[in-house]
């Protein structure tokens, strides 16, 4: 893979840093109100949701604990999910009897999150809900109930704010559309 050009490889900015910040603040306020008086565990799905999780937890005004999971349904620089989900890192603490909120960066086919939701329900949380920054419904293969949604986006390959291609572009402060020639190249 060639050395990425973080700015030049972006075809267009889909969501600015300011738009993301505003929406994350709104989500944090809503989650704070909904879980007032209850203990909440945020479960971040690594690696892409890390920036979103960090900003979201700072926007939540009630006590929260966090845990991290890493799952994979992609391989290397693949742009399509394989459909086979593997848990690479499991929770470090039990969520049984706790209120758990999955924090995801993007939902497209829904296959990975569907698997993960079922897996976590098997750990007997008191409640289990989903918060995603981005929803790409044009690619949905399974119905996923989204409780907290940042933005609905078109079917474009997006990068930035944690989203990557080949592990690059995650550090962009905005969400951009990757130029097709970057990921279509041999």
SSE order and pairing:
Blueprint: E1 10-15, H1 17-34, E2 40-46, H2 50-59, E3 64-72, E4 86-89, E5 99-107, H3 111-121, E6 127-135, E7 148-152, E8 158-159, E9 175-178, H4 180-184
Parallel strand pairs: 2-3, 2-5, 5-6, 6-7
Antiparallel strand pairs: 1-9, 3-4, 8-9
Helix pairs in contact: 1-2
Molecular structure report:
It contains four helices and nine strands. It has a single domain (17-156), classed as Rossmann fold (3-Layer(aba) Sandwich), CATH 3.40.50.2020. A six-stranded mixed β-sheet has the order 4-3-2-5-6-7, sandwiched between helices. A three-stranded antiparallel β-sheet has the order 1-9-8. With 186 residues, the chain is an alpha/beta fold. It has helices at 17-34, 50-59, 111-121, 180-184, and strands at 10-15, 40-46, 64-72, 86-89, 99-107, 127-135, 148-152, 158-159, 175-178.
Record keyword descriptors for this entry.
alpha/beta, Rossmann fold, 6-stranded mixed beta sheet, 186 residues, 24% helix
Write down the CATH class: Alpha Beta
Oligomer type: single chain
Question: From the alpha-carbon coordinates, what is the Rg to the nearest angstrom?
Answer: 16 Å
Please state how the strands of the largest beta sheet are arranged side by side.
Answer: 4-3-2-5-6-7
Low-confidence spans: none
Query: What structural class do you assign from the helix and strand content?
Result: alpha/beta
Overall average residue pLDDT: 92
The total number of structural domains is 1
């Amino acid at each position: 893979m060639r050395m990425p050009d973080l700015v030049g490889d972006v075809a267009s900015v889909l969501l600015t840093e300011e738009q993301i910040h505003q929406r994350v603040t709104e989500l944090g306020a809503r989650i704070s109100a909904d879980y007032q008086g209850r203990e909440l565990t945020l479960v971040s799905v690594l690696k892409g949701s890390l920036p979103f999780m960090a900003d979201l937890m700072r926007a939540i005004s009630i006590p929260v604990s966090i845990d991290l999971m890493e799952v994979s349904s992609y391989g290397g620089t693949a742009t399509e999910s394989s459909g086979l989900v593997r848990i690479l890192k499991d929770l470090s603490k039990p969520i049984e009897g706790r209120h758990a909120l999955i924090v995801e960066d993007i939902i497209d086919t829904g296959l990975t999150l569907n698997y993960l939701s079922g897996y976590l329900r098997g750990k007997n949380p008191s409640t289990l809900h989903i918060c995603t920054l981005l929803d790409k419904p044009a690619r949905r293969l399974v119905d996923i109930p989204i409780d907290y949604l940042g933005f609905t986006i078109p079917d474009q390959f997006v990068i930035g704010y944690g989203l990557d291609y080949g592990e690059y572009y995650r550090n962009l402060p905005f969400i951009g559309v990757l130029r097709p020639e970057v990921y279509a190249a041999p």
